[in-house]
Amino acid sequence: MNKIKLLYDVARTMKAKEKVDGVLTAQVHKDQVEVFSLRNDFGKNSTGDASAKVSCELNLEGNRIKRESLTEFSTAGDCQQRGRLLGKLFRHHHGTGECCGIKGIFSRIAIALGILSSLKSEEQENGGAVVSLNVSDLPEEMKTQLLERMNQKHAYHSHCGFLAEGDALETVDGVVVLTVNKAREIEKLTVNLDGRMQNAASESHLLSAHAEVQFAW
To answer: 9: which strand partners?
Structure first.
């Protein structure tokens, strides 16, 4: 199966959708103890009206924090203006650095090609297809970059996550699976990750995370 043609067809089909509804669920376990869970029932229509009903629970050293919210908003408007705003926010948090130079451009191209070469696609008897990406199949350089970026993201947002300040991921592995039907609509996206982290006291812990997006057509 031509995976580039498959991904192109999926992207084109999803772009043409006037209405998108689905459910996002996620769980994170630390040493087999659930430390984070999330459910997000979301929806968006062609006019730009969107909604998100979110419930999450965070377990911080035995102290459980629960939160529920319902948000309705409109994404209609000037796309260029929103893009400029996001660009300013990105530069504010991450700086300009080499990401804007020639080296940065080719680095992003190398990442995209590395991911593409590691993707596996399989056609199903019902006309659908399954696309998977195993972290272990990525080039070593990309696995190192993935680990570094995950730790950088935690460093920027350590105040609002399930990892404490000073925690750092040591290893990460897992698989991403995309399931599409014969109409090239995404039915489900699942992510399963396993890894090991070290805290500020040099203690090692096992981490596992599962996330799933289920679309309703």
So the answer is: none
